[in-house]
Design goal:
The protein is an alpha/beta fold. It has 13 helices and ten strands.
Length: 311
């Protein structure tokens, strides 16, 4: 949000110079950090994140932040090795690089087989592997590998809201899966939105726009369908994920750690969902209270969020 505000108030040239210098600083800082080798990464996956054979694991990642001392594509093999042939891996696979409303208004087609994911190198590498499945949801597609891939993804397009009861996020809750972050902290955790999509109008915040949008989708065989999608309202930006996790979620449910300065986390899907459901029924969410339904500030903050997103 701060980045969008600065982009709006600063002259384009000043903002561009500042952005370039910040990127240069981050690259130099990254080069000074110790790199993570293959043996160290295997220990992180097995000992710190406690992944075992047969696990259902949803992986959020940032290859750049991991600062690996080996080719990134080996990481997928390590994950497959630790969960075994009986385990299933899932990755976010949205193709969007802009607001969903903008993409949908352009009449573009989401091609499961050919549309690359914008969710990072590891997710894109997983998408390209033989045997990978991809869900048909037009804004929050998911890629999966393993024996439960079809079961977890097959009904995703039946949930207009991307994290509803037909989604792989919710099915991971039912199946007792885990979510891990590799190079990202727990503020990158799509599964938290299951509560919103399952409760709908009973959730304290209206997180989706009221209207449904139609999207053209090509399945893996090239057959075209029209899939309905609910779009997140920009007011969702007003949230405090890490503060919520620290204050309300037990460390046994969400374990966050750093190795050589790099963030990792492991989340137990079902206990997190159950805890968030209990909290939501008490009016406690990841969102600012000022955007809760009937708050006197909800209208103005929603308007501000819409304007910031439109730039």
């Amino acid at each position: 949000m701060i980045k969008r505000i600065l982009r709006r108030i600063l002259p384009a040239g000043v903002y561009g110079v500042g952005k370039a210098r910040l990127k240069h600083f981050r690259v130099r800082r990254q080069l000074l950090k110790p790199k993570i080798g293959e043996d160290a990464m295997r220990r992180i996956l097995a000992d710190d994140l406690r992944l075992v054979r047969g696990d259902i694991v949803f992986v959020h990642s940032s290859v750049d932040a991991l600062n690996l001392d080996f080719p990134f594509f080996k990481l997928l093999g390590m994950l497959r090795e630790v969960v075994g042939a009986e385990g299933t891996l899932l990755f976010p696979a949205s193709q969007l690089t802009e607001r969903p409303e903008t993409w949908l208004a352009g009449g573009q087609v989401f091609d499961l087989k050919r549309s690359p994911t914008s969710m990072g190198l590891l997710a894109e590498w997983a998408r390209r592997q033989r045997g990978s499945e991809r869900s048909m949801h037009p804004t929050h597609s998911v890629v999966a590998q393993g024996p439960l891939a079809v079961e977890l993804l097959g009904e995703h397009h039946r949930s207009p809201s991307p994290c509803g009861v037909h989604s792989p996020y919710y099915k991971m809750v039912e199946r007792g899966g885990v979510v891990v972050g590799l190079g990202v902290d727990a503020d990158v955790l799509t599964m938290v939105h299951c509560i919103e999509d399952v409760l709908g109008g009973r959730f304290p915040v209206q997180t989706r726009r009221p209207e449904l949008y139609s999207a053209r989708v090509l399945d893996m065989e090239g057959h075209e369908s029209v899939v309905k999608a609910a779009i997140g309202h920009p007011r969702m930006r007003f949230r405090r994920m890490l503060d919520f996790m620290e204050r309300h979620i037990d460390g046994r449910v969400c374990r966050r750690l750093r190795v050589e300065g790099v963030p990792f986390y492991r989340v137990e899907a079902r206990p997190l969902y159950e805890r968030m459901m209990t909290l939501a029924q008490r009016g406690v969410t990841i969102y600012w209270r000022s955007i809760h339904r009937h708050s006197p500030f909800e209208t103005i903050l929603s308007y501000m969020a819409d304007k910031l997103e439109a730039r």
